[in-house]
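Re: that backbone. Tokens:
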């Protein structure tokens, strides 16, 4: 089914668009369905991150999601900040080279810390890329690593 050209998932009396918006009438099941949709369906940035990591693995590289989000400390009842700010969303190693990939979708922009991290990786011989969609990433990959 499509609404304004976008796919939607039908859940009982409620339909949910890919952006997580409700289309249809509200019910107690609708609230549960929105919760389920938001927990199960990855965000566009998360989906792109997963796709890029999978791509790198399939081409013989090693990649992981670098989490730099603060963690809630229950004993102190406060968030502990990450040890390093600005670390890229994806870190990878391919053919002995460090690769740092930052995911930016829509209006999301690089912070000064993220820009600095990418510049530092480049300065020591690493490769960097800011990905907004998979096609651009794949084009960049083919230019950087033509003999894959």
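Recovered sequence:
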């Amino acid at each position: 089914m499509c609404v304004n050209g976008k796919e939607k998932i039908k859940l009982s009396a409620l339909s949910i668009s890919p952006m997580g918006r409700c289309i249809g009438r509200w019910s107690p099941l609708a609230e549960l369905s929105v919760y389920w949709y938001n927990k199960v369906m990855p965000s566009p940035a998360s989906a792109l991150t997963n796709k890029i990591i999978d791509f790198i693995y399939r081409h013989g590289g090693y990649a992981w999601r670098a989490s730099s989000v603060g963690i809630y400390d229950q004993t102190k009842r406060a968030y502990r900040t990450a040890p390093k700010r600005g670390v890229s969303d994806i870190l990878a190693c391919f053919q002995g080279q460090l690769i740092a990939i930052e995911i930016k979708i829509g209006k999301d922009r690089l912070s000064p810390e993220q820009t600095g991290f990418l510049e530092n990786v480049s300065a020591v011989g690493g490769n960097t890329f800011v990905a907004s969609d998979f096609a651009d990433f794949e084009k960049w990959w083919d230019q950087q690593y033509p003999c894959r």
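The chain is about 35% helix and 25% strand. The radius of gyration is 19 Å.
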